[in-house]
Design goal:
single chain; 111 residues; mainly alpha; two-stranded antiparallel sheet; 12% strand; globular
């Protein structure tokens, strides 16, 4: 039986990972966002950005996910109708320093 969760685990590797990074950087430039930290794992992505506070986080995620999914599905044969789920986690840095967030993202890879 096809298990979508298992399939996703191996999608974001090698040339797909490299292309995804390029696509996220392109969309960030277009939206005027600065990528502070980007970590692409085989089954998920950590993206720490800063930008215009008038841009709603849900619109940013919609743009990044839609743009990257459209391009990756056109360029690679995943055999899936969509690449991303609708879920994501967004939080402001608030009292947490950029360094702490970057350390957290690095620690997720065991770095």
């Amino acid at each position: 039986m096809f298990d979508p969760a298992q399939y996703r685990k191996s999608v974001l590797e090698d040339e797909v990972r490299d292309r995804l990074e390029e696509l996220i950087e392109e969309k960030a430039d277009e939206l005027g966002l600065e990528i502070l930290e980007l970590a692409i794992r085989p089954d998920h992505v950590h993206l720490f950005i800063t930008g215009d506070p008038t841009l709603a986080p849900n619109k940013i995620m919609q743009q990044v996910k839609g743009y990257s999914s459209r391009h990756l599905r056109d360029e690679f044969d995943f055999g899936l109708p969509s690449l991303w789920t609708r879920s994501y986690f967004v939080s402001s840095a608030g009292d947490v320093s950029s360094e702490v967030i970057e350390e957290y993202i690095d620690a997720q890879a065991g770095e």
